[in-house]
Design a protein that fits this description.
alpha+beta, Hsp33 domain, CBS domain Like, 2 domains, 6-stranded antiparallel sheet, 6-stranded mixed sheet, 33% helix, binds zinc ion
């Protein structure tokens, strides 16, 4: 694939449905880099990354989406966030070492929490139990209960090649409401799902989006929008660290500096360490002298 971090959105013009395909390489590599996650954790995180890309692409406004998995398993917490510009970051927090491979054995008994934060307006949250076999099935269940729109998601991850991918087929919500039409729409939706079901992981990781979409849907009328680049953006910065340090009591800052000569903060997501010495913290500690 020459276009490795790209999200494609398309309309099935005769079927009252939409679709998305995401194929990721370096953005997935960046998320797992320096973490030394076990293979099973990398695979689930890769799936969660593609899933979150697909979800953010369904946003009709500026904002971001965070998808969190929480449970009592060896991976107590996993989270990926992305915004409408497809800038993504994510993390897994291990409660213990694990060689587990499946959603159930990694996360354990738990929930998926989807938080949608529009740039303007209130944030809202949807919560579903992680009681299906795969992440893709849990997401389909989420759409069923929270949005009530028939949606199917396919997720792929190859940890050896460090590639992640996903596809989505969704009925458009605003049908004309007549029962005949609804039945036709549902049968079109099922047909598109059957076609999408034939994606093999080797082709989703080797074919360009256009070739793959042609392979799957050449008998359908498909209107493909301009592809969108997906990037890894952690969002951490020295300024954000300084604003966190400004919350610490000046006397405590002085005490840490006296003991360690600096204050170090490491970003949980990208493992970048920011060091601040006495000089760079002067404005915070000068308060203690007044
Ligand atoms: Zn960071």
């Amino acid at each position: 694939m020459s276009q490795l971090n790209v999200l494609n959105r398309y309309l099935f013009t005769d079927a009252h449905a939409r679709g998305e395909l995401v194929q990721l390489s370096s953005s997935f590599k960046s998320i797992i880099k320096n973490h030394n996650y076990p293979a099973g954790v990398e695979k689930l995180l890769g799936e969660l990354l593609s899933a979150t890309c697909l979800l953010t692409a369904t946003l009709k406004f500026e904002g971001d989406i965070t998808v969190q998995l929480q449970g009592d398993g060896p991976v107590g917490y996993m989270s990926v966030s992305g915004n409408n510009n497809q800038q993504m970051r994510g993390i897994a927090k291990m409660a213990e070492e694990t060689s587990a491979e499946t959603l159930q054995t990694l996360i354990g008994k738990g929930t998926m929490i989807i938080t949608i934060r529009p740039s303007v307006g209130e944030a809202y949250q949807g919560v579903v139990a992680l009681d299906k076999e795969t992440l893709a099935d849990c997401l389909a269940h989420y759409f069923e209960v929270s949005e009530q729109i028939p949606t199917k998601i396919w997720l792929f991850c190859d940890t050896e090649q460090q590639l992640s991918a996903g596809a989505l087929v969704q009925l458009l919500p605003d049908g004309d409401g007549s029962i005949e039409n609804k039945e036709q729409q549902l049968s079109d939706f099922e047909h598109l799902c059957q076609l999408t079901n034939t994606i093999k992981s080797e082709e989703v990781f080797s074919l360009e989006a256009e070739a793959l979409l042609y392979r799957l849907y050449h008998q359908e009328k498909v209107n493909i929008f301009e592809p969108q680049a997906v990037t890894y953006v952690c969002g951490c910065s020295a300024d954000k660290c300084l604003s966190a340090i400004s919350q610490i009591e000046p006397s405590e800052i002085k005490a840490i500096l006296a003991e360690q000569g600096k204050i170090s903060m490491t970003c949980d997501y990208c493992i970048t360490t920011y060091d601040f010495d006495e000089l760079s913290l002067q404005s915070f500690i000068s308060k203690v002298n007044h």
